[in-house]
Amino acid sequence: GSVQSILEHAESIISHSCLVKRDHIVADELDNGIRLYLNFGHTIGHAIEATAGYGQVMHGEAVSMGMVQLSRVAEEKGLMPKGITQKIEDMCRKFGLPVTYENWDKEALYQALTYDKKARGTNLKLVIVPELGQAAIHQIPLQEMKDFLERKE
Description:
Blueprint: H1 3-27, H2 42-52, H3 59-76, H4 84-94, H5 106-113, E1 119-120, E2 123-128, E3 136-141, H6 145-148
Antiparallel strand pairs: 1-2, 2-3
């Protein structure tokens, strides 16, 4: 479609996303339950932001890269269905979001995410997508997060 129709479509998606996010946050102020679903891609995304340095990678870009990286590993581990990563990657690309990070440093990313607020104790709660339109929490030992930081392309 035309640039205009793409922009109008994007605006309605963003508007809807904001309403969903607002409803989740109101329903779960303590960030323990349903609100965690909003964190898809954020665990790795926050680590990318932290290691890149302030202002080097926009939040949305970092989350996009985080979603794709997490999906690749989760798909390999059988936590997400085959082919879903490609769909997520295609959607990110469609909206001009990056799906890979040039300065990937597994150890630096791991160090950054161990300070992340979702690292409560020795476990980490990851949001996975068992099917498009669905979300689930998958709890892993913090150490296993290193598997999710093996660069995948």
